[in-house]
Specification:
22 helices; five-stranded antiparallel β-sheet; alpha+beta; 16 strands; five-stranded mixed β-sheet
Length: 499
Amino acid sequence: MGSAAYGYRADMAIVEEDLDRVRSTVSISDVVQEYVALRRVGRNWVGLCPFHAERSGSFNVREETGRYRCFGCGAAGDVFKFVQEIDHLDFVAAVEKLASKAGVQLRYTTGGEGRDHQRRRQLIEVMDKAVEWYHQRLLTGTGAEVRAARDYLRRRGLAGDVARTFKLGWAPDSWDELSRNLGVGADLLRATGLSFTNKAGRQQDAFRARVMFPIYTESGDAVAFGGRIMPGSSDPAKYKNSAETPIYAKSKTLYGLNWAKAEIVAADEVIVCEGYTDVIGFHSAGVRRAVATCGTALTEDHVRLLKRFASKVVLAFDADAAGQGAAAKFYEWEERHQVRVSVARFPKGKDPGELSVSDPDALGAAIDEALPFLGFRVQRVLGGQALHSPEDRARVAERAMAVINEHPDVNVRRLYAAQVATHVGLSAGDLVAATERRVRPVIRVVPVRRIGIAENAEFVAIALLLQRWNEIAPWMMEELFYDEICRRAFLAVAEAGGA
């Protein structure tokens, strides 16, 4: 079926005739100019390439052939390929986006799949209506409860343009106001999770007396909601999320990705938060590459989705709280999907949503200073107890080494073992040897005494570098040296290449 074979499901493709209709109906130069400033040069349109940084325009679009080509980076294709690349969509989603703009009704080669797709579009249209309905309740409602909701959002920095950008809404404290007024059949309300049939056999709204956060796919389709109670509510569930539906899978959906994906791609970095207000806080502070899970832990499907946009993942939540099992998953995902996971640290008791109002600069600083996932966990152990006695040093070393030994890469374990040795004043050789075998180290406790510069692990490392540069240098880095004199000595030796 030619191009149709590029669909997001192996057994689903768009009828070739419909592809041709879309291709002939849309203007590739008009589509490209939604993203790139073009000027007419002879038979071509020319501009700066959106796929790589350049100062002089090497990106060419030719209307008569319906194709584009960059003579700088080699990017080339037709209008479908352009939308795929610029919006990070699969082939079918790109065609559907263009078909929607062109008013072309698409058909699918598999009848069942075609019906399923039509049903999906129908459910998404219902969700679009619900988003707007809840949004207008927030903006124009006159009752005391909605005024209290607007006051709450204003205090949190979520009113005005922010509320309009993120389409925030209000679900009235009524049993069935949405169900009665949305103009949608009961079967569609139930299928989208907007209502359910109560014991009396009547339709009842799924969300009541909550601030509403619409959840979109990465391509901008509304598929679900998250609802937050108002302060003082007796409802024990602070947040309530839509149940999973034919158009919504929590483990494969990230709140905010539709707004953040362009900056994520530009920075090659995505920030993963726990809450919707955290995402909005980052965006309001000018850090527009934040997303959030939808009431679930981060899953491999989430990581697989994010890998399409970036190779660096910064966790903006307590990444150590889930314990050893979660750590093992993160290390596995780093290797399997070739991503780098780090953790941002925020002032104690503050979350990103609060900081966006009280100290926006602190958000950017926390991301810039994020630690590698293992480094974050080790630092938490090392900073969790004062080293007043030999027993304190032994306990901290054992706990830190237990964390380090979870990592699958022996070279990473060696480097962190040396860092622990420096911190607690123990033999680097013993800890490194233990982590090479992934065994619990035997800690030899000796009385506390002040360690002179010529006796500590950092000085020994410098001495070994001078004697065995080729063997030792690959495992050393500036961050391992806490002592300022040793750090400067290391930099000097490194600059001289061990000579």
